Amino acid sequence: MDNLEIGVILPGIDVQRRDGITLRDAARHTEAAGLDGVWHGDHLAVGRPTLDAALALTAAATATERITIGTGVFVPALRPLAWAAKQIATLQYLSAGRLVLGVGSGGGPDQWAAAGVPYTERGRRTDTALDLLPRLLAGETTPLHDTPIAPSPAVPMPPVWVGNASPAAIRRAARRGDGWFPSLITPREVAEGRTVLADLAAAHDRPVPTVAIGGTSALGGGPGVPSRDDLAAGIASAYGRPQADVADVPLTGTPAQAAERLAAYRDAGARHAVIGVAGPDWRTQVDLLAEARALL
Question: What are the residue boundaries of the Luciferase-like domain, all occurrences included (predicted)?
Fold first, then answer.
């Protein structure tokens, strides 16, 4: 059976300050622990300080040699497409081809208003980006708004994982993606979504995209380590979902218990997991997650 690759979301600004850790430190620690990748989200006007995804991942890329550098997820439609292509090409170049481009079209209306992009155009702009990025990253001169543009340097197109569990995202992944990248869903939902994904991919005469899941974990115990109920309540509040529906999503307990839960996702068809860790010490949580990976 194929194994499950596990990456971790890089620490945000508050955690960096709390734990005295830089992004370069965090990326090196992840690589040394034996995990498979580091990831960073792409946010604008979300009510808290966040770093630019491309710049944050550049720091991680230049500090590591082996692991995947991933966007979880990048929102190309928030930007002029030529600028998005330039950012992606630069990150692919600086990481020596280790980029996985998680792509989304979500976020609240405030994010789109801050970027000056109509919220109703997010789907169309995302599809256009996915159609044209391969040509732009290959260095082909591509007309945008009647202006020929070819961002430099020319780089291999990274794998594209389409984020979200919505029917629209599954359709987009089947037609345009190399992967489907839902977050905070159960193994049953993964299996059901993969069945739909496979049918849609076959209808487009495409291979079935790989499945990657986004999750959250707080392993071990002791003061400051959130419980499963704490994490589930946070998910329910943030995403407007009933807590009962997400009660089993967080990874908690021992590394062995986390490995058992991750194996359920693997058995449901997932081949990658990208985990955001919670707890009083980011490095310790990464080490515990690496123990779980080793048990797989």
Answer: 23-214
Lowest mean pLDDT among 23-27, 62-66, 152-156, 258-262: 152-156
> What are residue 147's DSSP bridge partners?
144
If asked whether residues 201 and 295 sit together in one domain, one would say: yes
CA–CA separation, 212 and 181 (whole Å)? 5
* Displacement of CA 161 from its chain's centroid (Å): 8
d(CA 26, CA 9): 10
Distance CA 205, CA 182 (A): 22
Helix axes 255-267 and 187-203, enclosed angle (nearest 10): 30
CA dist 151 and 88 (Å) reads 10
* Full domain range(s) for residue 148: 36-158
Residue 23 lies inside a defined structural domain of this protein: no
> What integer pLDDT is reported at residue 147 of this predicted model?
76
CB 243 within 8 A of CB 163: no
Prediction pTM value: 0.96
Q: Give the contacts of 266 (CB within 8 A, at least 6 positions apart).
A: 1, 2, 3, 4, 296
Half-sphere exposure (Cβ direction) of 47: Cα atoms closer than 13 Å: 4
Q: 56-73: per-residue pLDDT in tens? A: 999 999 999 999 999 999
The pair of structure tokens assigned to 74 is 């990048």
Longest dimension (CA), the chain: 60
